[in-house]
RNA sequence: UGCGUAGUAGUGUAAUGGUGAUCACGCGUGCCUGAUACGCACGAAAUACAGGUUCGAGUCCUGACUACGCGACCA
């Protein structure tokens, strides 16, 4: 027996199948039954278990699961090792918050050890919830043996990779792992650098009012600058604006846009009235000069006046490129150097310069701006500052935010007012350093304008004081040196969507900066580099055994008794002292590495180092099964990982092994609220994945997310959409299965794999749906192989709803419930069974629960036999089966075309009925079908019976030319004609549209006809026309894409009687249904005589009896009665009783 | 502010440059047709804007606008 069900309950199916999977170890079997050497490699991007899983995780993991399952069905072995991301700032910040401490307290109020223990305890906080959602959503991944980034084996592999980078050298001998200076956000008040993450916390950007100044940089006259000088003594200055006057003593360059237009303006210094010529962007002229003053006589103005009118004369505009290389005098000459005198204080080029504000010239101080630093490096401008004892040039502002002594006028002063304490700031004589600097410039005739300026500026979230951009010592990976190669490797990756790969990712690679690895934190992978105190010697350790060797060496040389720490984290690793080649002690560089390096290392670190392979000198000495697990065939994560995990995977693989880490990548979009807003806890509009899955089932949720929009588009999540999916797809499939089960059980029919009726022997309708099914198999596989799950899901939806349920089953209904077992009936069962079975298989990747449930229900009655015979249906789960192979021989394009005609003809006929208010139960005599060629007639004739029964019409009359009724119209076939005619298309199309019947007939007969368009003659063939029938005068017609149907709406007594008979059948069936009779029960029917039914009963009694399974049908005046409405006017008394 | 992506019925979506623009929900109308009212049939309803290329543009180009994402937030 096939199981039958009252109603669809997806959550109950989830529970049943989940239990089955667990009991029978289906996931494990699905992996293990496949050949290890035929692998489809998948990498799990590790989530962090210290936050709750959200609905977007369900989305991302559906994508992952889908392709893993699909490839399993295709026969690949798909290992899926789970993983957990356990390090990183978010975790540290959370722990700090919960412990009520700040970074400064670590090592003081709490030991590093205790702190790290707290982090370790936190990272797996929600692991149970994660495991739970993983199971409930049907995500198959190995949860029992995950990789965990804080484990020593994992850390050790990261070290190995770092060492490889350390040893790798560029062409000019630079190491890929190096220590250097960069400009980073820095909080002097907290004494620490800040990550961009910290800077982007809410409230960090605040509106502040700073003193801004336009400074005047005096141009040195020389050959190159001569064009700016009218005479040798002219005082020519370049204007540059800044909101951070404290950076002016560090100025070494001015940056201009090479394509921006600049002008020289003769005028007078606003503060001293001395004659001066200033250079600024032409577009900015109006911001600094009042047009009205251009006419004033060129005489010095009165500096005492409140708002003096300053005369000026603007010169000819010239491109910024002419300014490049010009030298200027240092603005505030506190510190300089021979190098600077040689190469500094020049005008350089920057494409980021705008004329939105300022003067179109950017004051450039490399230590206090990342752009500045880059521009200076590119232009070869040396750093400005004071060399420390190691010869490294240190900035003119120290780490407390104070000017160094060399900046004599301001030595020891904080550069920002906010760094002074409240008292000092409240002193009536207090003047911020910025202001003092501007006053000095004013006095020295170096200021052009001083004013307050309001703007947004980042603040430290911990101290609430403004951040400085400041050079800090950090370890870097020289990614910029691998830029081209990484770009090339990226070309070989199949990105979904393509634009993310070429756009966001590609451009990121093209502009690749070195990767700042250093984090001054505690909970993470420690940098495995030990240095002597003077930094002259260092070692990079690449494994635990190597560390052990180094420790032994150090113990021997330094007389210590150290061991490899039991835990590679801080603080233990910090205690390890190693010895340098020259015998000096070396201590570890205290930095941790960026957590993103952790996750990018997972292809290797998830397996760990294999010491034997290492000893043998293997290029990739990682444990088995690394060799068959690299690179990944497929990975998938959110687009936010483009510069995160996707990048780190790619960068590490590219730089360490000159390889890609993954071949196909799907980057899925965001899951938004249904109104398109972001889901966020603070807005309280997050969707709980547990509740969603409990309510609607995992399959409906998964299917909704994949079918509604491409995974890479943002999804506006709306649970109404899940309901729709459930009703439409799963409801329809469920009903189709239930229909099948109901009648198969009644007939005692079971699938017999060994005795299947050849397709050729089955009906037109059967072969049609089989053809559709195999077309679906093809489309589905193409879509899935192309990583297009949405296309795959929609193809399935169309098949199930339109083809299988609403055409095949609807038209086949009678075959199932009429009469005894016949060949035709058997063919119907086998056909429907096959459709359901294959649908279950194709749906299995997207909807793993329902599909398995369906498959198991279909195959349970024959499982034992199938196992005994080793036939395809022997598998206990759809997920263990082999995906149905595409089979072109089962696809009959002509048949599909015929059926398409049938469907459209029916639709047209029904539409006429609708318009004429002629219900379908009322039979009509005929439809007229104009035909244009013999082939069409033959095609329609093949599906004639289906059409007639579907629209309840007695006959089809084909109308040909000879009938004289047919009126043909022609339209140009633009596709074929376009190429031929080009410009003359329009004229020709007009002529063709005006073709008469005779012209069209002539063309068809002759095979070609000449027309003249715009004076050129063209030969037109029948293929160049789209011929349609236009109208049938005097008939009720409907047309659609060249098809025309006319309906004979003449009603005769006989037709009316038959219609009434069918109405009666329907009413009696309803009574049967109300009384809950079984579909096979025989009945007796009595009807009270009524004129409206006289004729129907007289002529169609046998028909009625047969349809309703009545043994007798009598007309009698004797009750008891039930009343049924025959139509709006007539109410009948009837009696239906069990025979 | 830079870069990227996208703007198609009320909503969500589809459409190798080829001419009545797809599908679903919702809406309207009619139907409890012996699997399915969580259903069926039939309708009404859209290419955001301004230009351009082309015989022909939803599709290609340009511009402004809007939304989202990623950067930058520095002068």
Quick rundown:
By secondary structure, the chain is of the alpha+beta class.
Can you tag this structure with a few keywords?
1139 residues; alpha+beta; Isoleucyl-tRNA Synthetase, domain 2; Isoleucyl-tRNA Synthetase, Domain 1; 6-stranded mixed beta sheet; RNA-binding
What does this structure look like?
This protein is an alpha+beta fold and 1139 residues long. Among the domains are: 205-458, Valyl/Leucyl/Isoleucyl-tRNA synthetase, editing domain (Isoleucyl-tRNA Synthetase, domain 2); 718-891, Isoleucyl-tRNA Synthetase, Domain 1 (Orthogonal Bundle); 897-963; 967-1031, Signal recognition particle alu RNA binding heterodimer, srp9/1; 1053-1138, 2-Layer Sandwich (hypothetical protein PF0899 fold), CATH 3.30.2320. Helix content is 39%, strand content 19%. It contains 37 helices and 40 strands. Strands 10-8-9-6-5-15 form a 6-stranded mixed β-sheet, with helices on one face. α24 packs antiparallel against α27, α25 (764-785) runs antiparallel to α26 and α25 crosses α30. It is globular. The two termini are 28 Å apart. The model has no long low-confidence stretch (mean pLDDT 86). The chain binds one RNA strand of 75 nucleotides through β6, β12, α11, β15 and α15.
């Amino acid at each position: 027996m096939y199981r039958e069900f009252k109603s669809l309950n997806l959550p109950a199916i989830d529970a049943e199948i989940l239990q089955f999977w667990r009991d029978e170890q289906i996931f494990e079997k699905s992996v293990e039954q496949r050949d290890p050497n035929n692998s489809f490699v998948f990498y799990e991007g590790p989530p962090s278990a210290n936050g709750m899983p959200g609905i977007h995780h369900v989305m991302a993991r559906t994508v992952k699961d889908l392709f893993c399952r699909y490839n399993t069905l295709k026969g690949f072995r798909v290992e899926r090792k789970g993983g957990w991301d356990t390090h990183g700032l978010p975790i540290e910040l959370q722990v700090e918050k919960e412990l009520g401490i700040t970074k400064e307290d670590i090592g003081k109020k709490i030991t590093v050890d205790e702190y790290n223990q707290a982090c370790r305890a936190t990272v797996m906080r929600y692991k149970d919830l994660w495991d739970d959602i993983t199971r409930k959503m049907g995500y198959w991944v190995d949860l029992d043996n995950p990789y965990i980034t804080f484990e020593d084996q994992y850390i050790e592999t990261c070290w190995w990779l770092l060492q490889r980078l350390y040893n790798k050298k560029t062409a000019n001998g630079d190491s890929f792992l190096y220590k250097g200076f960069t400009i980073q956000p820095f909080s002097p008040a907290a004494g620490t650098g800040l990550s961009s993450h910290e800077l982007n916390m809410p409230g960090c950007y605040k509106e502040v009012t700073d003193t801004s100044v336009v400074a005047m940089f005096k141009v040195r006259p020389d050959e190159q600058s001569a064009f700016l000088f009218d005479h040798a003594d002219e005082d020519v200055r370049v204007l540059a604006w800044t909101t951070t006057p404290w950076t002016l003593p560090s100025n070494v360059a001015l940056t201009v846009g090479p394509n921006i237009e600049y002008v020289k303006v003769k005028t007078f210094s606003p503060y001293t009235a001395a004659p001066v010529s200033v250079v600024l962007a032409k577009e900015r002229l109006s911001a600094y000069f009042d047009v009205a003053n251009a006419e004033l006589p060129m005489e010095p103005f009165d500096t005492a006046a409140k708002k003096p009118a300053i005369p000026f004369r603007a010169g000819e505009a010239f491109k910024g490129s002419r300014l490049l290389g010009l030298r200027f005098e240092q603005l505030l000459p506190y510190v300089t150097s021979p190098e600077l005198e040689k190469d500094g204080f020049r005008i350089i080029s920057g494409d980021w310069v705008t004329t939105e504000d300022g003067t179109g010239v950017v004051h450039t101080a490399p230590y206090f701006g990342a752009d500045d630093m880059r521009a200076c490096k590119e232009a070869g401008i040396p750093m400005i500052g004071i060399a420390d004892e190691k010869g490294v040039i240190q900035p003119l502002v120290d780490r407390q935010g104070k000017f160094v002594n060399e900046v004599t006028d301001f030595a020891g002063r904080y550069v920002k007012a906010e760094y002074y304490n409240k008292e000092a700031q409240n002193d009536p004589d207090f003047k911020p350093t910025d202001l003092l600097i501007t006053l000095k410039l004013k006095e020295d005739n170096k200021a052009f304008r001083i004013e307050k300026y309001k703007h947004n500026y980042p603040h430290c979230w911990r101290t609430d004081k403004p951040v400085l951009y400041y050079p800090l010592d950090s370890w870097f990976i020289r990614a910029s040196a691998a830029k081209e190669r990484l770009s090339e490797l990226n070309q070989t990756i199949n990105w979904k969507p393509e634009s993310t790969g070429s756009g966001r990712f590609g451009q990121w690679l093209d502009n690749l900066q070195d990767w700042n690895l250093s984090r001054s934190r505690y909970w993470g992978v420690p940098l495995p580099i030990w240095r002597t105190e003077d930094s002259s010697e260092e070692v990079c350790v690449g494994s635990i055994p190597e560390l052990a060797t180094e420790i032994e060496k150090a113990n021997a040389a330094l007389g210590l008794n150290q061991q490899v720490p039991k835990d590679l984290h801080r603080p233990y690793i910090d205690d390890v002292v190693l010895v340098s080649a020259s015998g000096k002690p070396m201590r570890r560089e205290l930095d941790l590495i960026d957590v993103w390096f952790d996750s990018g290392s997972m292809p290797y670190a998830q397996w760990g180092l294999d010491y034997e392979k290492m000893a043998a000198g293997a290029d990739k000495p990682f444990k088995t099964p690394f060799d068959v697990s690299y690179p990944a065939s497929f990975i998938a994560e959110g687009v936010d990982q483009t510069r995160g995990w996707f990048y780190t995977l790619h960068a590490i693989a590219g730089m360490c092994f000159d390889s890609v880490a993954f071949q196909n990548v799907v980057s899925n979009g965001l899951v938004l609220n249904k109104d398109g807003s972001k889901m966020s806890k603070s807005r309280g509009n997050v969707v709980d994945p547990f509740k969603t899955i409990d309510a609607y089932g995992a399959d409906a949720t998964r299917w909704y997310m994949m079918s509604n929009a491409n995974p890479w588009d943002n999804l506006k999540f709306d649970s109404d959409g899940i309901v729709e999916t459930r009703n439409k797809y799963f409801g329809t499939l469920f009903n189709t299965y239930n229909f099948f089960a109901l009648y198969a059980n009644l007939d005692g029919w079971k699938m017999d794999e060994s005795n299947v009726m050849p397709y050729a022997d089955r009906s037109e309708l059967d072969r049609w749906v089989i053809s559709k099914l195999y077309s679906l198999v093809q489309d589905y596989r193409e879509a899935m192989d192309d990583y297009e799950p949405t296309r795959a899901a929609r193809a399935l939806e169309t098949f199930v709803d339109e083809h299988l349920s609403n055409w095949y089953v609807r038209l086949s209904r009678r075959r199932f419930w009429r009469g005894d077992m016949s060949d035709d009936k058997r063919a119907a069962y086998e056909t429907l069974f096959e459709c359901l079975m294959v649908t279950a298989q194709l749906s299995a990747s997207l909807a793993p629960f329902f599909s398995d449930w369906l498959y198991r229900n279909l195959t349970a009655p024959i499982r034992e036999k199938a196992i005994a015979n080793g036939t395809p249906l022997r598998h206990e789960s759809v997920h263990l089966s082999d995906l149905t192979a595409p089979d072109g021989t089962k696809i009959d394009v002509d048949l599909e075309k015929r059926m398409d005609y049938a469907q459209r003809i029916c639709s047209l006929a029904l539409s006429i009925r609708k318009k004429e208010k002629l219900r379908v139960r009322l039979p009509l005599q005929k439809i007229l079908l104009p035909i244009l060629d013999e082939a069409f007639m033959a095609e329609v004739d093949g599906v004639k019976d289906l059409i007639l029964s579907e629209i309840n019409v007695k006959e089809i009359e084909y109308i040909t030319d000879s009938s004289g009724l047919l009126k043909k119209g022609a339209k140009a076939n633009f596709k074929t004609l376009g190429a031929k005619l080009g410009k003359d298309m329009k004229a020709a199309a007009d002529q063709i549209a005006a073709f008469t019947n005779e012209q069209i007939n002539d063309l068809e007969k002759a095979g070609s006809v000449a027309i003249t368009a715009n004076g050129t003659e063209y030969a037109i063939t029948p293929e160049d026309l789209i011929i349609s029938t236009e109208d049938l005068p005097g008939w009720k017609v409907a047309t659609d894409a060249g098809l025309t149907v006319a309906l004979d709406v003449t009603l005769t007594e006989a037709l009316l009687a038959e219609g009434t008979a069918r109405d009666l059948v329907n009413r009696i069936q309803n009574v049967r249904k109300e009384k809950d009779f079984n579909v096979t029960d025989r009945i007796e029917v009595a009807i009270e005589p009524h004129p409206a039914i006289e004729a129907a009963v007289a002529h169609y009694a046998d028909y009625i009896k047969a349809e309703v399974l009545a043994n007798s049908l009598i007309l009698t005046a004797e009750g008891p009665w039930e009343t049924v409405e025959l139509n709006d006017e007539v109410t009948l008394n009837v009696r239906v009783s069990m025979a």
